[in-house]
Amino acid sequence: MPAPESKQPEEDEPQRASLPSKLKPSQLLDSILSPDGPMPAARLPIRSLAFTLDFVLLTAVSIVVIWKLIMPIYHPGTYYEFTQWIETLLNWFQSEAQSDTSSAPQMSTTLTQGIRFAQDIQLIIFWVYFAIGEVFFTGSSLGKKICRLRTINTITLDPPSIMTGLVRAGLKTLAIFMLFPISIFITACVLFFNKRSQMGHDLLSRSVVIDERSI
């Protein structure tokens, strides 16, 4: 004779209905990177301070490297020609700027080529600096080290891989040199529209900057 089927007590049904639904990975990541989470995302003020420190350092280093080491080899006359053009431009402002027939002095072809070459070298210096920090110093540049920030991958929560570091550094560098400061403003505005405080280059490279002071 078959055994009668056992029935769950009716009082278990409300308890079963009240169980939480399956947690999505995105929700879990949001909780981890929340201000009260174990790895809180860095806010805009502290990130701005770290970026300013890096920018000042890189600008000073790139000026020395470009104009003292590289330009004398590849464009030896650019520095002298540039100073002469600046002097001519200042004189134009002082004496002929009010004249309707006067026009601002233009750069020569050689000076324009030299300035573009210097800008390209500066872009490479910025890219290499940020990439080295992301890949070889656990997602930290000198500015981030001082402010106790670092970059992590949003997939693994580990320091950025080589590819992620190169992509992130490249996107950040392009934001600095293309349509500055509009590009910086746009990528910073993205931070206010996501729960993880990610900027544009963070989202595109699947990374996030965390604040180690709150860990």
Quaternary structure classification: single chain
CA-based shape: elongated
| Low-pLDDT stretches | 11-21
- Figure out the total of helices: 9
How many E strands?
2
Order of helices and strands: HHHHHHEHHHE
Helicity range of the residues? 55-70%
- Kindly report the average pLDDT value: 86
Cross-sheet strand order for the largest sheet: 1-2
Main sheet summary: 2 strands, antiparallel
- Report the β-strand fraction as a percent range: under 5%
* Number of domain units: 1
Measured distance between first and last alpha carbons: 64 Å
Structural class label? mainly alpha
Our Rg estimate from Cα atoms comes to 27 Å
Q: What do you see in this structure?
A:
The protein is mostly helical. The chain has one domain. Helix content is 59%, strand content 5%. The chain has nine helices and two strands. The protein has a two-stranded antiparallel ribbon with strand order 1-2. The longest helix has 31 residues. The chain is elongated. The N and C termini lie far apart (64 Å). About 5% of the residues have low confidence.
Question: What is the strand and helix layout of this fold?
Answer:
Blueprint: H1 12-17, H2 25-32, H3 44-74, H4 78-95, H5 109-136, H6 142-147, E1 149-153, H7 162-177, H8 182-189, H9 200-204, E2 207-211
Antiparallel strand pairs: 1-2
Structure summary:
With 215 residues, this protein is mainly alpha-helical.
Distinctive features:
215 residues; mainly alpha; elongated; 2 strands; two-stranded antiparallel ribbon
